[in-house]
Amino acid sequence: GQKVVLITGCSSGIGLRIAVLLAKDEKKRYHVIATMRDLKKKDKLVEAAGDAYGQTLMLLPLDVCSDESVKQCINSVKDRHIDILINNAGVGLLGPVESISMEDMKRVFETNFFGVVRMIKEVMPDMKKRRAGHIVVMSSVMGLQGVVFNDVYTASKFAMEGFCESMAVQLLKFNVHLSMIEPGPVHTEFETKMMEDVAKMEYPGADADTVRYFKDVYLPSSKDIFEAMGQTPEDIAKCTKKVIESSNPRFRNLTNSLYTPIVAMKYADETGGLSVNTFYNLLFNFGPLMHITMSILKCLTCSCLRRRTVSPN
Ligand code: NAD
User: Fold this and answer.
1) What is the DSSP letter of 272?
2) Is the separation of the CB atoms in 13 and 188 below 8 Å?
3) Which atom from ligand 1 is nearest to the alpha carbon of 185?
4) Residue 170 half-sphere exposure, CB side, CA atoms within 13 Å?
């Protein structure tokens, strides 16, 4: 029979593309429950789904930050039966820590960390009872390696990875699989939204040097890296489909082979010096000279630093 897949955060980006790709499966193997905070934002998804809408794809409201909303949503699913849960909803946060309010930091954790915990807590007991199920979490390369000026976002993904690494062990005993997808940069509204937020920011509390490093050194480098290495949301959707269709799904799934050196450095030097110094040099010694930075990044992608990825093709 059809597998019931519930996905969070489907009004845009990666979540929208996963929902559409699974709903359009040629063999109609999936019944997709695409959820979003605000159903008023459904138009882009409905349009992209075409004929699948109302057939293999249905919509439900769900805010991962609300106990009530999560409970209500899962209770409205027939027999509360979900075969595959895809935790995709997430928010970014960029900038000097001095100028970000504690409130805003907590909001990122509320979505990226507690949002995932809340979903798993609600769906896992039924999966355990049935001794079947697959939980997928949209992590990031930043769930494995810290990145300057992404301090709090990175921490929220690290927290989630720690939670999942611990959960995966007991879930396996119940024949429930857990997988994390770890993309590098992806061209979505995520990137646009963050850049817009950053442009609006006035950086209260941050000194002039820090603001300059952020605006004039980090931001242009980050833009170049997105342009040179970014994947599309479709790529990530294809990787995700591969992971859920695997007979023995992997726990960690990097998606971008150009980006894996960043992770490899961490495992190549257990003191952490290699990562910290490489990032330091990239940013402060080469940052303003982008062509040099890019050629160094290309060197870094030599085969010895490649890690196994799940490819979209
Ligand atoms: P996006 O902003 O297009 O999508 C995120 C979605 O989550 C949006 O539709 C948003 O409305 C939704 N959302 C936010 N808060 C929510 C809440 N409380 N309840 C329900 N939905 C909520 O960005 P995206 O790039 O598609 O991001 C999807 C996931 O991929 C995120 O978890 C993000 O951390 C991760 N990711 C993104 C990138 C990237 O470069 N874009 C890289 C690695 C990982």
Assistant:
1) S
2) yes
3) 40
4) 8
Pocket test for ligand 1, best of 72, 188, 191, 193 (most atoms within 8 A of CB): 188
Structure tokens at 310: 């799940």
Please determine, for residue 303, whether its predicted confidence score (pLDDT) is greater than 70. Answer: no
Condensed to tens digits (0 to 9), the pLDDT of residues 198-213 reads: 777 788 899 999 999 9
Whole-number Å distance, alpha carbon 274 to ligand 1 midpoint, is 30
Domains of the chain, earliest start first: 3-305 (3.40.50.720)
Active site residues: 153
- Scanning the chain, the segments in alpha helix (DSSP H) are 13-23, 43-49, 67-75, 102-112, 114-130, 151-173, 189-200, 208-212, 219-229, 233-245, 261-268, 273-280, 290-300
Per residue in 242-278, pLDDT (tens digit) is 999 999 999 999 999 888 888 888 888 889 998 898 8
118-150: b or e for each residue (b if 16 or more CB lie within 10 Å)?
bbbebbbebbbeeeebbbbbbbbbbbbbbbbbb
